[in-house]
Write a structure and sequence with these properties.
It contains ten helices and two strands. It has about 220 residues and is mostly helical. It has two domains: about 120 residues, RNA polymerase sigma factor, region 2, helix turn helix motif (Rna Polymerase Sigma Factor, Chain: A), CATH 1.10.1740; about 90 residues, Arc Repressor Mutant, subunit A, CATH 1.10.10.10. It has a two-stranded antiparallel sheet with strand order 1-2. Strand 1 and strand 2 form a beta hairpin. The longest helix is centred in the N-terminal third of the chain and has 23 residues.
């Protein structure tokens, strides 16, 4: 199918169209379809399938960029750029890959390009910092300061695991490192976080940071593969 079946300008207006598309029964059906099935339908020319993927991943991708760039406006632009990249290279997706891994791989590439751009031409910090609210415990200043003290590679693994909630295998695929390396770096990062946060009496070993519905943003470490 043509990669231009959706014009770039259509992206920004999708939020308003999602609730109007189709009957209630059709909308309920879409929410039960897997990401991978939706992507295959999109490859076949379904605009509705793309709109559902956009609805599912717009906010997670915005959060991905916001946490790493601390610039809401640029985070929104890069989230939209991620979807534009999907549109322009629809045929590149292969059914054996998870859609969220595919999307985050695009996001990581865009993030790397953005950081290179900022290194060449430093961007002034936003005039007003992002608001810290109880609804976003990952925004807590003490958590962000602790994360900044981690090695860059270990910090990225922690964030992919705890905020994007990716599995060890997904992180391994994205960063192109062995699963055992993911495990060892994550362990070291958790221990470093514990050391940074222990004076605040915020955690008990082995607790790690995670945003989840209705909790304080901290959960026990797990052994999920």
């Amino acid at each position: 199918m043509s990669g231009n079946f959706l014009a770039p300008g259509d992206i920004t207006g999708m939020k308003g169209t999602l609730g109007d598309a189709g009957a209630a029964g059709g909308e309920a059906r879409r929410t039960m379809i897997s990401d991978e099935t939706l992507m295959l339908e999109f490859q076949g020319g379904s605009r509705e399938a793309f709109e559902e993927l956009f609805a599912r991943y717009r906010q997670p991708l915005f959060g991905f960029f916001r946490r790493r760039l601390e610039n809401n406006g640029r985070a929104e632009e890069l989230a939209q750029d991620t979807f534009l990249a999907v549109i322009r290279a629809t045929s590149r997706y292969e059914a054996r890959a998870l859609v969220r891994t595919y999307l985050y791989s695009i996001a990581l590439n865009l993030l790397a390009a953005e950081r290179r751009k900022q290194a060449r031409t430093p961007v002034p910090a936003p005039a007003q910092a992002e608001p810290m609210t109880n609804n976003h415990p990952d925004d807590a200043l003490w958590v962000r300061q602790a994360l900044e003290k981690l090695d860059a590679d270990e910090r990225e693994i922690v964030m992919l695991r705890e905020y994007e909630q990716l599995s060890y295998l997904e992180i391994s695929t994205l960063l192109r490192i062995p699963v055992n390396t993911v495990r060892s770096r994550l362990f070291r990062a958790r221990m470093a976080l514990k050391k940074c946060l222990e004076p605040e009496r915020r955690i008990q070993v082995p607790l790690v940071v995670r945003r989840e519905r209705g909790n304080t943003g901290i959960r026990p470490a797990d052994d999920e593969a």
